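TASK: fixed-backbone design
INPUT:
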């Protein structure tokens, strides 16, 4: 899969998009930066070979098939629980018209992500917030501000929905990155979305290249304005998920 200049072309064919030479160099440089930061801080174990190119880069970008067709369009996107910078940094590289907000509560991680964004020349389009997302959801700089709100491997879907929906503009979409997904999951999420005044718009399914597992992405849209009480105070969404039995 991996060549001296990055992954084999068939990975981009599977994605239906190919980076420009500059974007490819940024993705390669991001891999180098992750290696360096991992020597100081355990950001991610997915740094080498297909772990990086499939499980990090490809898995970050495949849910954005439509957005990649208009990559220079102006968008505001927020990545909740960005951790080591994914999917946010990959999205910022692939969508040059997008301004990214990356949120994580762990200061060591956000400091590393800020440094990587700066090294990649992305500082003007990326802002970092070190805080719990329950706080971001009530901050006027974040609430109702985003065209796209994304989260990968953060928490159960009803919990993530409560984090993301309050951040959306009226015509925005929340993208929930999931692994396995079934009818019971959909029913639980649908119940959770009712008080948030949102609905599942689409569910996409994909088998990652090289047999690296099944992935799903759920696109959620607002039906009407999200009530002001959401997200609930820190810790409550995960302790008492919306839609769960009383």
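OUTPUT:
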């Amino acid at each position: 899969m991996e060549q001296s200049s990055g992954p084999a072309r068939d990975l981009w064919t599977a994605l239906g998009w190919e980076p420009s030479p500059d974007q490819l160099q940024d993705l390669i440089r991001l891999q180098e930066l992750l290696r360096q930061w991992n020597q100081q801080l355990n950001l991610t174990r997915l740094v080498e070979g297909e772990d990086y190119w499939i499980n990090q880069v490809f898995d970050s970008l495949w849910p954005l098939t439509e957005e990649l067709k208009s990559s220079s369009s102006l968008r505001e996107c927020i990545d909740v629980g960005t951790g080591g910078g994914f999917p946010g940094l990959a999205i910022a590289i692939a969508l040059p018209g997008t301004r990214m907000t990356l949120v994580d509560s762990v200061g060591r991680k956000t400091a590393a992500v800020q440094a990587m964004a700066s090294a990649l020349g992305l500082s003007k389009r990326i802002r970092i917030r070190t805080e719990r997302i329950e706080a971001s959801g009530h901050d006027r700089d974040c609430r109702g501000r985003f065209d796209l709100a994304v989260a990968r491997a953060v928490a159960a879907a009803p919990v993530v929905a409560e984090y993301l929906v309050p951040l959306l503009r009226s015509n925005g979409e929340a993208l929930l990155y999931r692994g396995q997904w079934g009818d019971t999951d959909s029913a639980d999420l649908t119940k959770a979305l009712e008080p948030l005044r949102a609905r599942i718009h689409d569910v996409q399914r994909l088998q990652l290249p090289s047999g690296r597992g099944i992935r799903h992405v759920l696109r959620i849209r607002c039906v009407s304005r999200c009530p002001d009480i959401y997200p609930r105070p820190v810790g409550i969404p995960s302790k008492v998920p919306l839609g769960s039995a009383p």
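COMMENT: The beta strands are 2-3, 6-7, 75-80, 98-104, 126-130, 146-152, 168-178, 198-207, 214-222.
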